[in-house]
Amino acid sequence: MIVRIMGEGQLTLADSHLAELNKLDNELLAEMESGDGPGFRTTLHALLARVRVLGTPLPDDSLEPSELILPSPDATLEDVRDMLSDDGLIPG
Asked: Quick one: how far is CA 45 from the chain centroid?
């Protein structure tokens, strides 16, 4: 799957990593619902860090369609809330 981190670029990520990322996504969703700003920030950074570690960056000149778009590390709680679906940021 192709994942875009807004403001950074795209990475390829094996579908087998989605379960691990979904745990962080669920945590992020719970923190957003409770208004836990510091927890939200910590979990967002952890989620993006895992995507960077597990994924392989695509070349800067590559323009592949992204299957998953994640917010930038400096996104606010409100920015991320606008991006959410019923499943959170990561489907499933």
From this structure: 9
